[in-house]
Amino acid sequence: MTPPDHWHEAIAARHSYRSYKDIPVEEEALARLEKACAWAGLAGARAVIVRSRFDEVSRGIAGSYGRIDGAPAYAAFIGDTGNPWHEQLAGYLGEGVVLEAVSIGLSTCWVGGFFFPRVVATHVELAAGEKVLAVTPLGYRKEHLTRKDRLFKTVARSRGRKPVTELTTGLPEGSWPGWARAGLESARLAPSVMNRQPWRFAVADDAVTLSVDSPRDTYWIPKRLDCGIAMLHFELGALRAGFSGRWMMLDPPAV
Predict the structure, then answer these.
(1) What is the CA 36 to chain-centroid distance, rounded?
(2) Using an 8 Å Cβ cutoff, are 80 and 133 in contact?
(3) Does pTM top 0.90 for this prediction?
(4) Whether residue 107 is found in the same domain as residue 179
(5) What is the strand order of the sheet 168-170 is part of?
(6) Among 12, 108, 123, 152, which residue has the least CB neighbours within 10 Å?
(7) 131: helix, coil or strand?
(8) How far is residue 103 CA from its own chain's centroid?
(9) Residues 6+ apart with CB under 8 A from 166
(10) Is 121 found in the same domain as 16?
C-alpha cells in the first residue's frame, strides 16, 4: 500500500520530545492512529496504540535520568522474530504511525532501549515469537523545552547529519535520477538511535539498494530498525518526486 502524501510534510516537522503535558489525547486522534497502525498490512510486524501512561514503561539511562515524562498514551512496535526482516518492517511501519501522529499535532520520540518490555507485555497481548522492539510516547509536548529536552537535542545535534554523499555508493552524484535524490534527502532526515544513521544506499539508474553500515548493533538496539525508518522516508521522498516503486527484501544478512 502506498503511504499517504501528507506524511512527507511531517518529516520536516517531526522532532523528538521527552517532556509532555499531563493532558489526555483525544479519542478521535487515537482512533486515527489505530488506522495508521494497519496502513501497510505487513506480515512480520505490527503496531499497537496503548491507552496507558508512558511513565509506566519508561526508564532512564541511569535511574530517572533520561526518562520520558507526562505522555498519556504510547505506541508499541512489535516484530515477529520468525520473520527475518521483522526489525526493518517494524521500523517502516512504526515511522508511519509517528508521522501520522505528527501530522495531527502530537509529539513523539522513538525509544528503542530505555523502556520495560515486560511492562508493555502487560498492556499488549503478544503472540509466540513476538518481541516489542520499540515504543514512542504520544501526547502534547510542553511549550518550552525542558533542560532534559535541550540536553538530548544537544547530544544528537553534536553528531550532525551526514551529507548524502557520505551515505551513498553506486552512481556518481551528478548522475542520480531526480527521484533517487529526493528519496535520499528525505531518508537523511530519518531519526535513528543517538543519530547514528546506519543506513547506506547504493544508487543505480532504476533502483536503490539500502543496506546497514555494519552488522554489529550499537546501544543494544537493532540498526535494521533504523533502516526500516529510512526506507519509509526514502519512499515518501521518491513519491513526492513522482516515482512509485516497491521494496524487495533481500536475504539476510543484507537489508
Answers:
(1) 14
(2) no
(3) yes
(4) no
(5) 168-170, 199-203, 208-212
(6) 12
(7) strand
(8) 15
(9) none
(10) yes
Of 230, 226, 157, the C-alpha closest to 193 is 226
Residues 198 and 113 in one domain: no
**What CATH number corresponds to the domain at position 234?**
3.40.109.30
Structure-block grid coordinates of residue 73: 498514551
Instruction: Name every residue whose Cβ is closer than 8 Å to that of residue 167 and which is 6 or more positions away in sequence.
Output: 184, 187, 188, 197, 199, 200, 201
Q: Which residues contact 170 (CB under 8 A, 6 or more apart)?
A: 201, 202, 203, 204
What are the angstrom distances between the C-alpha of 2 and each of 37, 41, 55, 87, 249? Answer: 14, 11, 34, 20, 17
pLDDT in tens, 30-82: 999 999 999 988 999 999 999 999 999 998 654 444 689 999 999 999 999 99
Contact (Cβ atoms closer than 8 angstroms) between residue 182 and residue 203: no
Domain region containing 53: 5-155
Report how far residue 99's alpha carbon sits from residue 122's, in angstroms, rounded to the nearest whole number. 26
